[in-house]
Amino acid sequence: xxxxxxxxxxxxxxxxxxxxxxxxxxxxxxxxxxxxxxxxxxxxxxxxxxxxxxxxxxxxxxxxxxxxxxxxxxxxxxxxxxxxxxxxxxxxxxxxxxxxxxxxxxxxxxxxxxxxxxxxxxxxxxxxxxxxxxxxxxxxxxxxxxxxxxxxxxxxxxxxxxxxxxxxxxxxxxxxxxxxxxxxxxxxxxxxxxxxxxxxxxxxxxxxxxxxxxxxxxxxxxxxxxxxxxxxxxxxxxxxxxxxxxxxxxxxxxxxxxxxxxxxxxxxxxxxxxxxxxxxxxxxxxxxxxxxxxxxxxxxxxxxxxxxxxxxxxxxxxxxxxxxxxxxxxxxxxxxxxxxxxxxxxxxxxxxxxxxxxxxxxxxxxxxxxxxxxxxxxxxxxxxxxxxxxxxxxxxxxxxxxxxxxxxxxxxxxxxxxxxxxxxxxxxxxxxxxxxxxxxxxxxxxxxxxxxxxxxxxxxxxxxxxxxxxxxxxxxxxxxxxxxxxxxxxxxxxxxxxxxxxxxxxxxxxxxxxxxxxxxxxxxxxxxxxxxxxxxxxxxxxxxxxxxxxxxxxxxxxxxxxxxxxxxxxxxxxxxxxxxxxxxxxxxxxxxxxxxxxxxxxxxxxxxxxxxxxxxxxxxxxxxxxxxxxxxxxxxxxxxxxxxxxxxxxxxxxxxxxxxxxxxxxxxxxxxxxxxxxxxxxxxxxxxxxxxxxxxxxxxxxxxxxxxxxxxxxxxxxxxxxxxxxxxxxxxxxxxxxxxxxxxxxxxxx
Length: 750
Prior knowledge:
Blueprint (H helix, E strand, L loop, with lengths): L3 E9 L7 H11 L3 E6 L4 E8 H13 L9 E6 L11 E2 L20 H7 L43 H8 L21 E4 L3 E3 H13 L4 E4 L4 E5 L4 H11 L7 E3 L3 H5 L6 H8 L5 E5 L6 H4 L4 E5 L4 H10 L2 E5 L11 H6 L8 E4 L12 E5 L2 E6 L9 E13 L9 E10 L9 H18 L5 E5 L5 H8 L4 E4 L1 H13 L5 E11 L5 E10 L2 E8 L2 E4 L2 H5 L1 H11 L7 H12 L3 E4 L2 H11 L11 H15 L11 E4 L2 E4 L1 H13 L4 H27 L3 E5 L6 H13 L3 E4 L10 H13 L1
Parallel strand pairs: 2-5, 8-14, 10-12, 11-15, 17-19, 19-20, 21-28, 23-27, 28-29
Antiparallel strand pairs: 1-3, 1-4, 2-3, 6-7, 6-14, 8-9, 9-13, 10-13, 11-12, 15-16, 17-18, 21-22, 22-23, 24-25, 26-27
Helix pairs in contact: 14-23, 16-17, 16-18, 18-19, 19-21, 20-21, 21-22
């Protein structure tokens, strides 16, 4: 009796853009099986026939030996009639098109070791070719125009293959078989450099750009997802010009390093940080300084945002120049620039010396991702290149496609169908018209590529949010959810929690259900529901947006609330405005409290970038720790009023003011303040557990980017018997809000 089997297989998962079809064909030939493989846009379809045990081995290795990275593919199989499988050698056949399934599409992949070796090998025909790639690496999401993922459906259709590349593309024995980004010096994109003095091409363009950078110039470099602005991190004059060009007064710049050893010369590097730095997405990783560059690179930050090159052009620049500042090519707050013409216009500025560019189109603008390691575990700070559009699998399902609009700061949206949530890349602040337009285009594009048209929507409560207005424009049933509820729900989504969960959301701002500005919240979350159990007591905050920038305004409001005298004419004006209720809003914001304390201690008085005052406060506390100081926690009592737990900010401000007037150093008090917040947060959670019996704790919100607060509160809660959860795969800041929103919507449907 014959043991021959004939099987049809559908393979779902990361099977686009990773060389999966050549892998299948090679495996089929190795096992002497007949069959075909083709791309259907959302998955791979395989017909296979042959000896039964060999077919079983084939199916097993399809999963265990699959190329690419991330989740293992899902394989669905069914027995079929033998005549449905063509005879002869196992072959790749032309792609088809199916629209019933949501595809899993690959992100842009960093240059693989094999391509890097060829890039640097003078004997290789792609030696120093700045666009070298293969099935294991190169751009994917940023160059994809439509599905199925074939060369003619990407921007590489603009570059017809030369005979040598065409032979590799069709040769199943090579790793460039069906590599849609395949190219070389003879047929692919080339480099151009334009300066105020002239224009160069190919090797001349690269060499002149490298010379400019070494000589202290500022050069725009067109990379995978848009332009970077590059300069020498030790050249103060170049850095000053770069800051002027970007309109970026003080926020630290990221630095690209040639290799891990050069990173270690400047930064402390733990094993988890090394793993994150070298991972395929190649994010910017926030690392503690060992030594510094010019002060204009990172300013007062105790960390350097370090990254390794992710593309061949970057590798060549590192070899030619050493470490370089590599910051997004945009004005601060605006979207990253992708078009050559727009960047070339900036050559009119005295602060830009050259534009190094190419003609490979960019379909999706994409910033660098930013991550860090906290308590030994990786944590996303900005989710973009290398991670998007990979989905997160959630423990709930959505029968109808859900669109989550996210928030307006660190804008990011999410589409969900089935059990998969597809987060967009980071966009920036929706107040900027360019960011808002990029966001709108991305919603349309991501929906088209993933074949997801919104059928339900969910957005923030804030009546003035641009993201909310966009969600309303979709004309689908719309749910609104409180901002900090979404923060805690994002933690629940990541860790598969249905609740009940006690959540602490420490944030800058969020529109509350009572119209106040929330930001220091104790929430009980279960399923799609939320109950507010406590918060920082309301402080009448004067100044609106000005108070979010000028910490002196925040301090004046907090001093007034604490019953302390006004110390300046400006503070008297604030006091009068609060008394009259003019331009005043009650707030429970932890972010504004950090600003006020930073100003009180004379550490930071103005947020010339988001969180600058809080960073100064954390720096002072960290330095006190390093000196071995061990102050008691600042007084931050918890009281109860009408069943609500309240943290007494007035008592806190009074106690810090008294200690400062008694001669205590600002650094010591900065550490005392951090410990006071930790003690207060622990007390809130203990009282809430007594009421509810819940011991699951979720921490989220931008204030938890503070390492002392996050680690200290997590440790205190664990010692008190809580199980502590926090964001890891999505940011703790507003970049994670869309995931929380979509999870709440799915739980409500489920």
